[in-house]
Amino acid sequence: MSNIPETGRTSRVTIRLVVLQILVFSLLLTLAGRLWYLQIRQGDEFAAEAAGNHVQNVIQPAVRGAILDARGVPLADNETRLVVSADRTDLLRMPDDGEQVLTDLAGLLEMDPEEVRNRVRLCDSETPQPCWNGSPYQPIPITDEATVQQALQIWERPESYPGIVAQPTAVRRYPAPYGAHTAQVLGYLSPVTDEEVAESQQTDSPLQRYDQIGRSGLERTYDEYLRGGAGIDRLEVDKFGRVIGEAEGVEAEAGANLVTSIDSRIQAVVEHELLQAMKQARQAHDDISGRNYEADSGAAIVMESHTGRIVAMASYPDYDPNVWVGGISAKEYQRLTGEEANDPLLNRAIQGQSPAGSTFKVVTSSGAVRAGYDFDGNYECSSSYSIGNTTFKNFESRGYGPISLGKALEVSCNTVFYRLAHAEWQKDGGINPGENPNDWLFDTAHGFGLGSETGIDLPSEAAGRVPDRAWKREYWETNKDAWCELGKEEGDDFAHRYARESCEDGWRLRAGDAVNFSIGQGDLLVTPIQMASVYSAINNGGTLYRPTVGKAIVDVNGNVVEEFEPVENGKLPIEKGTVSDLQGALRDVIEVGTASWRFIGWPQDEIPLSAKTGTATTEGKQSRSWLTTFSEDYTVVMTIDQAGTGSGASGPAVRNIYEAIYGVDEQGAIHPELALLPEPPAELPRTDDNGTMAAEFDKEWEQHFAAYKKEHQENYEGAAIVPAGDGEDGDGAGDFQAGAEAGTGDGTGEVLAGAAFEADRRREGTGGDG
Amino acid sequence: MSVHTFSSGLPPARRSGIRRMMARDSLFRRVDWLLLLAAGGLTVLGCLLVWSATWTRTDINEGDPHFFLIRHALNAAIGIALAVGVMWLGHQRLRSAVPVFYGFSIVLLLLVFTPLGTEINGQRAWLSIAGYTVQPGEFAKVAVILGMATVLAAQVDAGDRDHPAGRPVLQALGLAALPLAIVVVDDMGMAMVIGMIVLGVLLASGATIFWTFGLMAAGAAGAVLVWTLGVLDEYQINRFAAFANPELDPAGAGYNTNQARIAIGSGGLTGTGLFQGSQTTGQFVPEQQTDFIFTVAGEELGFVGGAGIILLIAVLLWRALRIARGATDLYSTIIAAGLVAWLAFQSFENIGMALGIMPVAGIPLPFVSYGGTAMMASWIAIGLLESIRMKRTLSA
Fold this sequence. Notes:
The complex is a heterodimer. By secondary structure, chain A is of the alpha+beta class.
């Protein structure tokens, strides 16, 4: 400061200048401090924010893996379609926001301009469908059904269609080989929701907003394998969304293929036979209801008895799985879910619950043996059996005298099982049970896997119901208030009487409950897949296998990623000897018993079959047909609701299925060259060097099957109406439900966990007017 | 400039010339070289940053990546030439021309409201003359400083009083109020700068402190009045609202502040390097070659570059304040202090808004931002300061 000479300033000015200096430098210090805070203290945060600022992720969807049958024939794969999509950023840069381009495009694609505009708008809480739910940087698909001519127009005149691209894109497709829909087993896809995207971010396979995921069937169970990993093109963009470069992205990883144990040829046969059997049943007259059978739904399963693998699984009504391709329209969805459609989305083979009828008697027989009864002992098969003032009649009131349990199965004698069940009920203490009742029959039902899910690799399986004491109590706890309420009202009909009685002690297991249960009636509910599992176990010597459809996961290079070995659910709770006894009795059912009239001429010595027929009744409905059968390697189960008796309605269809599997003609001659699958396939389909799975599509058989179907149809249409109940099985629908104790529902409508099933719903709703 | 002829390639024979140059009263010694260095450094940095901010902007640079660089350098050259002219004339000799200069500035300000005026980003503060845009407000700032200094210092420099009386203070305030009234509605930034200049000038003039506090109170009351009367345009209110809470509307009014902070914050210690800033290339920050030029420095040169700019400004203001303290008369002191108040506040506001601690206002960063008028006015300030310094040293 020494070089500053004296000035004329006053000291006041000097002080003021110092004040100014302090002010100025504190301002500058503030700036420096703030700069340090932003760049050094918080620098990383802002760097991350800046990185997200200028990179836009454009999703390259992975090609979804195919679902193949056991011979490599695709049940679900992808086809290349010409997808026309619009780039929103390009459109918005136009003066009219792309209005004109979209209108022109609608003209070209022969679509409604309004709809095209709606597809391009972004979804928000106030926008109704259709709207675009994905990233605004993602090209928005307008149609996936463009023709080559339309695409050419777009390619050749890009100046007329700025922001519009047409490109071949992989779209899910269900080829339905040989006409086999396999609809409910395959399931379907639909776009993910925002919630699902958010939830999946922490998992190994985060979903993208663009993804479609499996909603049902195999598409859902094996979704993570099939989906693959979406690729990401990372585009550096400026604030106007213009691409100014490309950052390192992630390559899309194609989804792996799922090889199933389904044989699409047998699947086609099963679907065809089930439908034909239903059509046939509709031509038959039901003497009880006084009208033709409704035959409104049915299910059929072909399972490998020694592994639990599903060879075919059909459920009617069904649908063409291709309705889902390219997004289902509201109209189509309405048709699938509407009242008239009768739930075609439901896979009745695993979700349909109903009483098992006489097919349950193998369980009762096993329970009786466990309780100490001799399988070959003598049991009175009278024409009826009375408990108190209620009489339980045998089917058509026919008696056989003293017979063995095997014979009782063969002729499906109800009174033998009534007697056993009643005696056991009394032994357990009757209406006032002791501390720990044996409950041999209920215990055996659980031991056979009933009342719990089989664990099949398909979603939403129903568990069924074993109406044991625990269930009765639980049911009473839930309903007693409603019952007591109803009981107080005036009225002397069944519902009121039942309510009054149940209000007090509805938890009690009554004699009628035990007796009905013994023949697979009453409150018992089973699913077809449970019965397939039970009969497979009897066939294979006593092992309950977990049913599986998926056999292996094979990646795009043909490497087996994972092979699903058979899994045991447990062993039947009976001795080997008892299993053999049951096997013998069930074989007699085919040879001399209730199913024999349907298997006349069958080459039983070469290809021995076994079976049990069942006719289950539900209050207010016609009889349900059950036919559970097995050969050396396969278990075939068919059930048709409101169709009559087991052998009557399902017999010919099941026989036709066996004929196709083993190459047997109608006269019973075996043609090995026509046999589709005399033994379960030991190997997975071959893959070639490119990793492509060899699809052994059976062209020759396809023609054969087409000819057969044509002939078959003509035969059926010309065939005489098969008299219902001509078989000897049957549980005497209506006969035993006279007693008060046989009633079930209370009118309040119990809601069961799992899929609703029509039989169950109606059952709970009828109130049983006896 | 003469500086360069002196320092480049000196043969041994010119020794006596060097001695003459280094003599205590020589022109060479009388120039404040640190001040020139700081202003020059800021100008060079400004060239680089303007270049980096615009070389990819094909939308405005007419396809020439050097378009803005060349024009910016040309503006700087004109500014430096004007500074040399001011130094040559001397601020004392300009004293008599102050009324003319002041009047001319006011006329230019008023011309903005004629068809010659141009509106940019909601601010009507530009004149369009023969294809060039001129911002008369920049000259008005200098005119206000010179005008107030002339009026306030007249009696004191004549030795009649030792501090300005009430009458000249009122006159000086009147000189400031006229341009303030013209710009307050359309150019809030300019109005704020004039306000700060007035405070600085009054403070340095030695007028009773009552005037300073009174004026601050009046300013606060005026702000409240302007706000409640709804004179402000919506965009101006939005800028203040966004300053208070940028997350309020990150795509709208808060967008600028947010993006500016992201750009600066992502620079870290050393930045991405010139021409490497992705925020800059991506144009996420608006007006990056002008009002938000500091974000380019922040992103591409990092803390080192940003703090360097602040340091250069600090050096410049330190030298200017030294010149103010060393001035031989009140007229010179007031001019120097007024220039300090102007440049200091304008730098603080400009960098502060980029850093998110000041509301957004259209104010350029002196010597750095692209803009011809602002560049020229800034260099005229340097010329005035050097003139004061040379005069003082001369008279010492």
